[in-house]
Design goal:
By secondary structure, the chain is mainly α. It has one domain. It is 63% helix and 9% strand. The chain contains four helices and three strands, in the order H-H-H-H-E-E-E. Strands 1-2-3 form a three-stranded antiparallel β-sheet, with no helix packed on it. Helix 1 (6-32) crosses helix 4 and helix 3 (54-75) packs antiparallel against helix 4. The longest helix is centred in the C-terminal third of the chain and has 39 residues, at 85-123. The protein is elongated.
Amino acid sequence: MEPMNQKGYLDYHKEMCDKARDLSFKKNCDYAGKQGKDPFANFNRCHQLGICSTEKGFLVRLTDKFSRLSTFCSGGTFEVADESFEDTCLDIINYVCLMAAYVKDKRSNSNAIREKQNKIFEGGNQDGEGLHRAEFGSATIMDGNRSSFVKG
């Protein structure tokens, strides 16, 4: 048998990504519900329960899978027969995709909120009195004609 070439690798990559996507859909229905309203529901629960941030929840699951691969690399086998080497790799692909989608969604929502705030703060009120905004590190200072406040 010939060693894998670039075309063979790319064909295998597509096969793995197709399998990962199919598996992700099925598992996401189990973990997050068939309605599909919150694909990150099980990771958000880490934050809701006060265990860790949602992002760290993703990292914990990835660490579990990397630990499993590390054990495999040391011994060449798994004791649990119902999850193969390929299954573990597929889970890693899916956790990375889920985390990337979560971060993208979080940034998009943060940007949308920031844009709404900017319209409010810079647009002013009916009397033409607006708020002026300056950012200093993590603090945002708002100053209007009638009030001042700090928002971090």
